[in-house]
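Please fill in the sequence for the structure shown.

STRUCTURE ENCODING:
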């Protein structure tokens, strides 16, 4: 197995959105493929027709793209082993089942649900440790089976687990050897009476035909594995290496759920998390680079990921750690990266920047980089930039925060402060309008006017930004521009007299 090129797959069922647990499974598969020069396959396990929807498939694909988990084969990209949705592979499952039937490795079973229930009750009664299917139809004469099929009797197809099969030992890359007693694996159903394959059958047919070498998935599937091993053996296909990864728990030790917070990838995207930070955080839920490194950029993950460092213990989702990592990623961005990846899309979404974000950046990159430089240290989640930038886009219609006006403008010194600021700033020409020049012009005024520094700047800040909490003043005024800065000082004057 080791010398075979690695082929792994992520096989979500589109019965809901992509959850953080699924996303982590996808990340591990993707990183394992990348770290081993292998192939990462995306397959849509949509055989549950009542719960699978196209809309969910689209949501999953969008989440995968946002996470940056590019797949080499699968929906939209195609590949040599398609189709990549199970509903389009029904004929392949039928052919595989027919082959097992022809080879005597599967057989039809006509037992009704009532008969099965009665058998189970009887097994319980006689305290038989084996309470599964009693293999009633296993040795039926093929001619009789055919006669009953021809007569239209409903039947399922069951796999023939060899009677002399010894324990099934799964060599799990995370859990080590896990032993299952083969006698407890009854001859389970591979095809239902309605002509649809069961999960344990369809998934193995796919994994075998797609040449999957490693199956990395949640450990809720560990108990399915011995049955799947039986299918590999019946098909005569090599059994892949399994790696079952642990559950994700909420901070209270219970399975992560809505009660703890957002659980779908989409919600984290909407809340403004950076995809790289989010992938980094999820990767660390059960895997460690070296036990101490917390910031593992995508390229490091893609070159250094290994199953040896995956823990079998449940991982606890730590919202604070996610935010911390998010903060690290934002602070590590250059101003221009922050502007293009985060600021502009947010401003565009909020309607403050009407033009296409990329075009807007092209025209005013210096302006947006400057804004990015003052917002970046004050941002954890992307949407926060909107409120902090709003004053720059309000033009003449800036709204004043009443409390801020009361505390900073409705004072006897405020008119003097604004008038002096106006006079000083007027001296700066359009071409010299920089934060440094602005800061220099304002700096000398408090002392000259004998107004407390904090009070002076408070008055100017509220006049310009409408609010006493705003980014650094010099840069803010540079961004506002000379004309708007002067116009706002004028406009705020009448608000000053109230307190005089
Ligand atoms: N469709 C299955 C799931 O979403 C895939 C399980 C597997 O990886 O075999 O749980």
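FILLED IN BY: designer on duty
SEQUENCE:
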């Amino acid at each position: 197995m080791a010398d075979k090129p690695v082929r792994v797959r992520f096989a979500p069922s589109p019965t809901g959105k992509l959850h953080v647990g699924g996303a982590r499974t996808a990340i591990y598969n993707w990183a394992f493929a990348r770290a081993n020069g292998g192939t990462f396959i995306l397959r849509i396990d949509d055989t549950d027709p009542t719960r699978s929807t196209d809309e969910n498939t689209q949501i999953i694909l969008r989440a995968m793209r946002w996470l940056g988990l590019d797949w080499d084969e699968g929906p939209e990209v195609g590949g040599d082993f398609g189709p990549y949705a199970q509903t389009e592979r029904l004929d392949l499952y039928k052919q595989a089942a027919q082959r097992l039937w022809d080879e005597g490795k599967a057989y039809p079973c006509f037992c009704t649900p009532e008969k099965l229930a009665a058998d189970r009750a009887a097994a319980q009664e006689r305290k038989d440790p084996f309470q599964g299917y009693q293999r009633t139809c296993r040795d039926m004469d093929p001619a009789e089976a055919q006669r009953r099929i021809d007569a239209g009797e409903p039947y399922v197809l069951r796999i023939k687990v060899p009677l002399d099969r010894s324990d099934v030992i799964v060599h799990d890359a995370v859990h080590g050897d896990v032993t299952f007693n083969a006698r407890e694996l009854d001859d389970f159903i591979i095809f239902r009476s309605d002509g649809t394959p069961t999960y344990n059958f369809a998934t193995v047919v796919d994994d075998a035909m797609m040449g999957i070498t490693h199956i990395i998935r949640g450990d809720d599937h560990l108990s399915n594995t011995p049955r799947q091993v039986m299918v590999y053996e019946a098909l005569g296909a090599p059994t892949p290496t399994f790696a079952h990864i642990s559950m994700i728990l909420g901070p209270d030790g219970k399975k992560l759920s809505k009660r703890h917070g957002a659980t779908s990838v989409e919600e984290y995207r909407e809340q403004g998390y950076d995809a790289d930070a989010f992938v980094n955080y999820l990767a660390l839920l059960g895997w460690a680079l070296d036990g101490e490194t917390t910031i593992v950029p995508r390229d490091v993950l893609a070159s250094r990921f290994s199953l040896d460092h995956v823990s079998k213990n449940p991982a606890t989702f730590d919202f604070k750690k996610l935010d911390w990592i998010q903060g690290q990623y934002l602070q590590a961005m250059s101003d221009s990266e922050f502007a293009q990846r985060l600021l502009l899309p947010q401003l565009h979404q909020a309607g403050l920047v009407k033009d296409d974000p990329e075009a807007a950046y092209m025209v005013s990159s210096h302006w947006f980089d400057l804004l990015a430089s003052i917002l970046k240290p004050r941002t954890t989640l992307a949407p926060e930039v909107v409120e902090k930038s709003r004053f720059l886009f309000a033009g003449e219609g800036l709204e004043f925060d009443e409390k801020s006006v009361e505390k900073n403008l409705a004072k006897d010194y405020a008119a003097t402060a604004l008038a002096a600021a106006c006079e000083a700033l007027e001296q700066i020409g359009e071409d010299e309008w920089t934060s440094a020049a602005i800061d220099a012009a304002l700096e000398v005024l408090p002392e000259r006017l004998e107004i407390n520094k904090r009070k002076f700047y408070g008055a100017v800040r509220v006049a310009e930004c409408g609010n006493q909490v705003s980014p650094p003043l010099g840069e803010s005024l540079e961004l506002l521009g000379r004309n708007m800065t002067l116009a706002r000082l004028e406009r705020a004057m009448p608000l000053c007299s109230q307190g005089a």
